């Protein structure tokens, strides 16, 4: 049958994926984590096409609609995961049509499953304090403990993604000798840079780590700010483990580095910060992404009103 594969793979699909991933890496400068997610999504698509004995040049809109159904029912994926995979598949088909690898874009009319709106979960200020205090920082603290304290402080102080904080080099800290403050140069998605202030508690934790911890860890002459026990830049999973371990010691559940980013944004808005300033600090390309935090703030205001108003 025309359009069937020969059981040995699909060379057109392989070429398409290779060129699209190179385009995303070189021309759009996407992060390694984002590229890995795309690769996993396309791996699912590749396996599904193989199971259907279909080549990418023969697949039609109806086939892709069946793929959507299979993601939700046959593979049992959550709606959010299915939506991400379909968005990836639409992207690679659009690229294939634009580059002349495919005859047309059969994925353009395939609807993306609607994602349920979810509000970010922010920690209370007391919980953030408990999380930070769960990381030792006294005279007896070792290099790794000082590093972990500085990392958790920096995640909350800057609101940066864990990959952004772990991507910092020692020279990215810009100190202001006039007031003792500091800023950091954060490199975000797409290679965009932004400058974010560092709070005094975070700066104190950072100084303790740099002078009493990092020097002991830096056996390989790395420029990275946060080092692992082998003297190399910490990886993303190590950053997640640091936060999870601190949360366990503090008796907190479901806490990740992103929880601190959510808390950073929510606490700023609670304090009266302008949403566009928060957008800039978070590195969001669109203010609509930041505005979800204003819904969190609105819920907080309703809760306070319900507790305090005499005629609620």
Note the main sheet: 3 strands, antiparallel
- What's the gyration radius in Å? 23 Å
Bulk shape: globular
**Number of E strands:** 3
CATH architecture of the largest domain: Orthogonal Bundle
Count of structural domains: 2
How is this structure best summarized?
This protein has about 300 residues and is mainly α.
SSE topology sketch:
Elements: H1 11-27, H2 32-52, H3 61-72, H4 79-98, H5 125-133, H6 143-158, H7 162-166, E1 173-175, E2 182-187, E3 193-198, H8 200-217, H9 236-250, H10 257-270, H11 275-282, H12 287-290, H13 292-308
Antiparallel strand pairs: 1-2, 2-3
Helix pairs in contact: 1-2, 2-4, 5-6, 5-9, 6-8, 6-10, 10-13
Protein described:
Keywords: Cell cycle, Cell division, Chromosome partition, Cytoplasm, DNA integration, DNA recombination, DNA-binding. This is Tyrosine recombinase XerC. Residues 118-306 form the Tyr recombinase domain. It holds the Pfam family Phage_integrase. This protein has 312 residues and is mainly α. It has two domains: 11-98, DNA polymerase, domain 1, CATH 1.10.150; 125-307, hpI Integrase, Chain A (Orthogonal Bundle), CATH 1.10.443.10. Helix content is 56%, strand content 5%. It has 13 helices and three strands. Strands 1-2-3 form a three-stranded antiparallel beta sheet. A hairpin with a 6-residue loop joins strand 1 and strand 2. Helix 2 (32-52) packs across helix 4 and helix 6 (143-158) packs across helix 10. The protein is globular, with a radius of gyration of 23 Å. Mean pLDDT is 87; it is low at 1-7.
């Amino acid at each position: 049958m025309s359009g069937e594969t020969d059981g040995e793979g699909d060379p057109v699909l392989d070429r398409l994926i290779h060129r699209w991933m190179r385009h995303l890496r070189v021309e759009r400068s996407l992060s390694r984590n984002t590229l890995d997610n795309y690769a996993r999504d396309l791996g699912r698509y590749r396996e599904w096409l193989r199971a259907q004995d279909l080549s990418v040049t023969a697949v039609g809109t109806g086939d892709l609609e069946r793929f959507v159904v299979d993601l939700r029912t046959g593979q049992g994926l959550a709606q959010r995961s299915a939506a991400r995979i379909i968005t990836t598949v639409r992207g690679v088909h659009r690229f294939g049509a634009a580059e002349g690898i495919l005859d047309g874009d059969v994925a353009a009319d395939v609807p993306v499953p609607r994602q349920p709106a979810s509000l970010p979960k922010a920690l209370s200020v007391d919980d953030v304090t408990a999380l930070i205090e769960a990381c030792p920082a006294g005279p007896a603290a070792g290099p790794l403990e000082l590093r972990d304290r500085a990392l958790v402080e920096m995640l909350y102080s800057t609101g940066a993604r864990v990959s952004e904080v772990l991507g910092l080099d020692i020279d990215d800290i810009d100190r202001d000798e006039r007031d003792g403050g500091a800023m950091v140069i954060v490199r975000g998605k797409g290679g965009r840079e932004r400058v974010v202030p560092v709070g005094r508690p975070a700066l104190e934790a950072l100084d303790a780590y740099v002078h009493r911890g990092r020097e002991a860890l830096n056996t390989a002459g790395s420029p990275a700010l946060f080092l692992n026990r082998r003297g190399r830049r910490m990886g993303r999973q190590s950053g997640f483990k640091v936060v999870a371990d601190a949360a366990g010691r503090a008796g907190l559940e479901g806490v990740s580095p992103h929880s601190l980013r959510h808390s950073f944004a929510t606490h700023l808005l609670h304090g009266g910060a302008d949403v566009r300033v928060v957008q800039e600090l978070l590195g969001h390309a669109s203010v609509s992404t930041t505005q979800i935090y204003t819904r969190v703030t609105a819920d907080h205001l309703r809760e306070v009103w319900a507790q305090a108003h005499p005629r609620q």
